[in-house]
Design brief:
The structure holds 3 protein chains of 3 kinds. Chain A is an alpha/beta fold. Chain A has a domain of 149 residues: Rossmann fold (3-Layer(aba) Sandwich). Chain A contains 9 helices and 7 strands. The radius of gyration of chain A is 19 Å and the shape is globular. The longest helix of chain B is centred in the middle third of the chain and has 31 residues. In chain B, helix 8 runs antiparallel to helix 13 and helix 13 runs parallel beside helix 16. Chain C is globular and about 60 Å long. Chain C has one domain. Chain C is built from 13 helices and 2 strands. Chains A and B meet through helix 5, helix 6, helix 9 and strand 7 of A and strand 8, helix 4 and helix 7 of B.
Chain lengths: 235, 553, 364
């Protein structure tokens, strides 16, 4: 059913990934970490670099997690919050149920086509600066379910991910390590590139008029939000 | 050793195959026997008649599963019927439909649970059910093209998934425009849905008028995965991921039991004891989580009970890790036995497990102090989320949910497998039918499981050194005879976990269907929360203890 | 009327309020009304910041540490001594987040709600005598003033719930108002029973009245704190207060796991900080109120200069109690909550009021 060869378009050109990255973060360097002050001043005076450093320290040491369970990994994620492992020791153990108050989203499980748009929506609802930890093999590649007709091959198809924690599921220790690595990166002011072209939420009316869109035209309103899902096209 | 397996009431009179044939009469076109049960082929428009006769006259009151599949020349729906009073009495009703016009009569008027099953059969295989009250897709998005488990499905085709805003579904029912109801989406991302469940709720103030669970947000194509794997090794890792709440070994046992019966493999007694012990450890871990998350729902926030439940789970997971090498996804059972013997030094492992069992009563007392004897907790849970036994049976509820409604049904005793019938333990039932009973049933089942483990440890400790056989002789490649069909179930953490396998003579199953207890239990939610308050909806959802991985598969 | 009140020796620093003292020390009172205003402003600034600092410690750090202690965990350790620097990190990070305003939000109301919630609680501290001379104002209607300004918070919650254009917020806002209406009355009525004892609404008078000796056991004077004089009223007030500040078992307006985060679901960044501050300030205001009218205010062993220390200990004691309940007690359902409020607490509080009036009348 599946092909072991990567798709031609990905193989030959890196345009899909760079295009998406450019459209996501705009021209030039990633400004997710830079303060408005720096934008206003346009240069890097001493005080502002110190300020940026301070802000990175702040963001890297204090994070509210989104209370978000998907699949198997969420059990280990709860164990990470709970008594023995207690990730709150590192200032990262306050789960907030509302995405508006969360900084870090741990994606703990398999994403399927039906959930994809919803996860995108939740991610979009989080305020900047936001970070994502992909937990488990499913968020890397679809894991053991990659062959499934309904499975998104990795959460990165939908949202950008800063840290991948491999495992099926990763042990709580591994997740803590992943979160600590994320904290370290934030403190160093590093951010992760987007490596694949993610699925985007679009209005149905904006989609390219191909055969499938024509067929569904009667069922879906023009301004309904939709996401294309293409199992075969994923790398 | 006395056995706890005597039922309090007499099992109903055994219905012989001849009597069954007489009940069905001329409506049976042919026989299509399965390994587990006699099968009768009936015409698509006789379904309701035959099923209701079997239910009324022969006492088959449990529609355990509905399997839909496509052959080269026909579609087929198989209704697996059982009796709550005696699940060893089984019958299969096979309904073939033509390839061009796959329309079959709906069984929904006879068994309420057929509603969701037939929606799933339509969704994944593509059979239409005439007279079905709600013929929608259930697992895949509404806009999905094709039926993925049908033979001509092309996975490479692109799909479009919508993110629609939902209309108020009961508005048309109101003759007045100024309807006071409000539509509320609970989930798919909501702190109380235990994963990614979407409950479309209609509220009148805080009172629930209508709920419609929308599932499929974790439909990971488990059946497809199993159909692509070889019997011997490739399927076993997947059951761990159905009910992922540490119930892995219980799920693995469902597959092991089905495949062993299919290929006629005898499991050594010693391996059966290890299986029994480890499976009960899983049950404890799973029920601890159920308790913890239920308290999360009733208390709000990650409170003490929740944390304590996880502290105790951590101990169980440690023991299981010693035994299987993994914390959550064990992959420990093999067809014909288990992967390896108890860890060395054996005494240390047994000691560790015993320590856990010794501490357990004190912990259970602590839970009783903190939770079940708390008056506010009682006010919150007693007489909420009522599930009457008749309704529960109609929806095919099993496991602690059924036992909390007074249905004395436990496959470990009623359809014995493993080593359960040699051990002394009891089946817990409660008559409260409410959220409180379901919590109590789980807490007492933890104690019963501890009893079972205790006895298994004694046996394992004293087992003769040279008879510690953990694995039967199983051929390297397993190829059951073509067209053998079997449906077998075990008592998972959430209830009756069944698997249907049809072999086609190759080393991979031609059809692999999972009967998920959570799927049935969740379908009863609608009956439980009618006219209750939002907090009760959340609590009822928690007391059902659903795992979305198993609901959606 | 309890006639003996006026015969009590007045403590020296109770008569001098903080603004006057500041005016004295800095010489500002020489500049007339302007100077007094400035002195009052400085005093308010000091008290406000004291309370905000306390909330700052409580919210990101103490709450976590306390909850962790109840659940066998450690919580923040790696940032500074005992993780104390998390206060800086959390505060700055929350303030620096992006503010998201929902598309359909009702703008002025949406922006005002967090300010109303936070400031209403802060206002209440103005009339609380905190000991060691920290007392901003001592109007004759002190107690009524506290109830009045604390009640404003419910308006803030309704505004937040309604203006967010989110159904969960709406439910939370409605719950908040239903709850506050149901519990404000028992709260005030129970408070009135104290007023009958003290014969005054003035906070300083209520505190002084509690300085009397109730009984002497073995040479130790047990003060006439109203919690000891009328434990029934104390318990009633405590329960009503938990509902008033929306903490377990009465945290229905926020109800995580039920309605996501209730009225604050849509708030992010600064607004969220304000609401969060408001919640904690309310807990502390509730604690301050309980301490003042039931636990003798700043009274305690040792010199009077230690008053503020005792006062803070009492407030934190109440705060600890709320956190304990949060960890251990289930949440009641909204209909049960209303039932407890209207059918239970209201009746009991009136019974308490009448009983107190009769007893006080008989003694007098």
């Amino acid at each position: 059913m599946s092909s072991n060869n990567p798709k031609q378009s990905i193989h030959d050109s890196t345009a899909p990934s760079t295009d998406t990255r450019d459209s996501r973060i705009g021209e030039g360097p990633d400004d997710r970490f830079n303060s408005k002050l720096r934008e206003a001043f346009g240069s890097s005076p001493f005080i502002l670099t110190k300020f940026d450093k301070f802000m990175n320290w702040v963001r890297g040491n204090s994070m509210f997690m989104l209370q978000f369970g998907i699949a198997c990994c969420s059990i280990e994620m709860i164990h990470t919050y709970a008594i023995k492992h207690d990730i709150d020791r590192y200032g990262a153990g306050v789960p907030r149920a509302s995405p508006r108050q969360a900084d870090v989203m741990i994606v703990p499980g398999t994403i399927v086509s039906k959930f994809g748009p919803r996860m995108k929506r939740v991610y979009d609802q989080m305020p900047e600066p936001k970070f994502v930890v992909g937990m488990g093999s499913c968020t890397i590649s679809g894991g053991p379910f990659q062959e499934g007709y309904n499975v998104v091959k990795g959460a990165e198809e939908i949202i950008p991910i800063d840290i991948h924690v491999p495992g099926c599921p990763p042990r709580p220790e591994a997740l803590i390590y992943g979160v600590l690595k994320l904290q370290e990166r934030i403190q160093n002011g590093e951010s992760s590139p987007v490596v694949v072209k993610p699925y985007e939420l679009e209005q149905f009316g904006d989609l390219e008029r191909d055969e499938l869109v024509q067929k569904l035209a009667d069922d879906i309103d023009e301004d309904d939000l939709v996401m294309r899902y293409n199992w075969a096209d994923s790398p | 050793m006395s056995t706890g397996l005597e039922r309090q009431r007499q099992p109903p009179v055994e219905v012989t195959e001849e009597e069954l044939a007489a009940v069905i009469g001329d409506r049976a076109l042919a026989r299509d026997d399965h390994l587990n049960a006699p099968g009768f082929v009936v015409r698509p428009d006789d379904v309701q008649d035959v099923l209701s006769d079997l239910k009324e006259q022969a006492g088959f009151d449990h529609l355990s599963c509905l399997t839909a599949q496509q052959y080269e020349d026909r579609y087929e729906s198989i209704y697996h019927l059982k009796k709550y009073a005696d699940p060893t009495q089984e019958v299969s009703v096979v309904v073939p439909t033509s390839i061009d016009d796959p329309v079959s009569q709906s069984a929904e008027p006879v068994f309420r649970t057929a509603d969701w099953h037939e929606r799933e059969a339509f969704d994944l295989v593509g059979i239409d059910y005439e007279g079905h009250p709600d013929p929608r897709r259930i697992l895949l998005p509404e806009t999905w093209q094709g039926h993925p488990l049908s033979l001509d499905y092309d996975q490479e085709k692109p799909q479009i998934v919508t993110l629609t805003e939902h209309a108020n579904p009961i508005q048309p029912d109101h003759h007045k425009d100024e309807s006071d109801t409000m539509f509320l989406n609970v989930g798919p991302h909501h702190p109380a849905t235990h994963g990614v469940l979407h409950v479309k709720t209609v509220l009148d103030g805080e009172t629930i008028v209508d709920v419609d669970p929308d599932i499929g947000y974790l439909h990971r194509c488990e059946e497809q995965m199993c159909q692509q794997g070889t019997y011997r090794h490739q399927i076993m890792p997947y059951p761990d991921r159905w009910d992922y709440v540490s119930a892995g070994l219980l799920n693995e046992w469902a597959y092991a039991r089905t495949a062993e019966d299919l290929a006629d493999i005898e499991v050594p007694e010693y391996a059966q004891i290890i299986r029994t012990m480890s499976a009960e450890l899983c049950r404890i871990a799973s029920h601890m989580l159920a308790l913890g998350t239920f308290c999360l729902d009733v208390y709000g926030d990650f409170t003490a009970i929740f944390q304590y439940a996880f502290r105790d789970r951590e101990v169980v997971q440690d023991i299981l890790e010693d035994l299987t090498g993994q914390r959550l996804m064990f992959n420990y059972f093999r067809l014909g036995g288990v992967a390896w013997d108890l860890p060395e030094p054996r005494d240390e492992f047994i000691e560790k497990t015993r320590d856990f069992l010794d501490e357990l009563p004190a912990k259970v007392d602590e839970y009783n102090d903190l939770v079940t004897s708390n008056e506010i907790f009682q006010v919150r849970t007693i007489d909420t989320g009522i599930l009457e036994p008749e309704v529960a049976k109609d929806y095919g509820c099993t496991g602690p949910v059924a036992r909390g409604s007074g249905i004395d049904y436990d496959l470990r005793r009623d359809d014995p497998y493993g080593y359960y019938d040699e051990l002394d333990w009891d089946v817990i039932t409660m008559d409260g039918c409410d959220n409180y009973s379901r919590v109590l049933v789980r807490m007492q089942e933890v104690e019963e499981s501890a009893k079972i483990i205790e006895q298994c440890l004694d046996l394992l400790e004293d087992w003769p050194e040279d008879e510690r056989e953990i694995q039967a002789n199983v051929p390297r490649t397993l190829k059951p005879d073509a067209d053998t069909e079997i449906y077998r179930a075990v008592e998972g953490a959430k209830g009756e976990l069944g698997i249907y396998i049809r072999s086609d003579g190759t080393d991979k199953p031609a059809r692999f269907k999972i009967r998920s207890p959570c799927f049935h239990n969740l379908s009863a939610l609608e009956e439980m929360v009618q006219d209750e308050y939002i907090p009760d909806l959340i609590a009822s959802l928690g007391s059902l203890d659903i795992v979305l991985g198993e609901v959606d598969r | 009327m309890v006639g003996s009140v006026t015969t009590l020796p007045l403590q020296a620093d109770d008569t001098v309020l903080l603004p006057e003292r500041i005016g004295d020390l800095t010489g500002l009172d020489a500049y007339g009304v302007g100077g007094e205003l400035l002195a009052a402003f400085i005093a308010a600034f000091i008290v406000g910041n004291l309370m905000l600092a306390m909330t700052g410690v409580a919210g990101p750090w103490a709450k976590r540490k306390i909850t962790a202690a109840f659940t066998d965990r450690i919580a923040v350790t790696h940032l500074g001594p005992a993780g104390l620097l998390i206060i800086v990190a959390d505060a700055v990070r929350l303030l620096s987040k992006e503010i998201i305003i929902p598309e359909n939000a009702d703008r002025p109301a949406y922006d005002l709600a967090p300010i109303v919630v936070a400031s209403s609680a802060l206002l209440g501290f103005a009339v609380i005598p905190m000991g060691s001379g920290i007392h901003l104002a001592d109007p004759e209607v002190g107690l009524a003033f506290v109830f009045a300004v604390a009640g404003i918070a419910s308006i803030g919650l309704v505004m937040a719930g309604y203006a967010s254009a989110n159904k969960y917020s709406m439910l939370g806002g409605l719950r908040a108002v239903a709850q506050n209406v149901a519990y404000e009355i028992p709260l005030v009525v129970t408070g009135m029973s104290v007023v009958i004892f003290a014969g005054s609404l003035q906070m300083s008078t209520i505190v002084e009245a509690q300085a009397q000796t109730l009984v002497s056991i073995g040479g130790i004077d047990i003060p006439a704190w109203y919690a000891l004089v009328n434990p029934f009223a104390f318990v009633l007030f405590l329960v009503a207060n938990f509902a008033e500040v929306g903490r377990n078992p009465f945290d229905t307006p926020e109800a995580p796991t039920e309605i996501v985060a209730g009225y604050q679901t849509e708030y992010s960044s600064v607004y969220f900080v304000l609401i969060y501050l408001g919640e904690f300030l309310h807990i502390f205001l509730g604690g301050a109120l309980i301490a003042t009218i039931f636990l003798g205010g700043p009274a305690g062993p040792g010199p009077a200069e230690l008053g503020i220390v005792w006062f803070l200990i009492k407030i934190w004691g109440i705060f600890l109690l709320t956190q304990w309940l949060r960890s251990a007690v289930p949440r009641v359902r909204i209909d049960q909550l209303i039932e407890i409020g209207w059918k239970g607490l209201l009746v009991l509080s009136f019974a308490n009021l009448i009983l107190t009036a009769v007893i006080v009348g008989l003694i007098a």
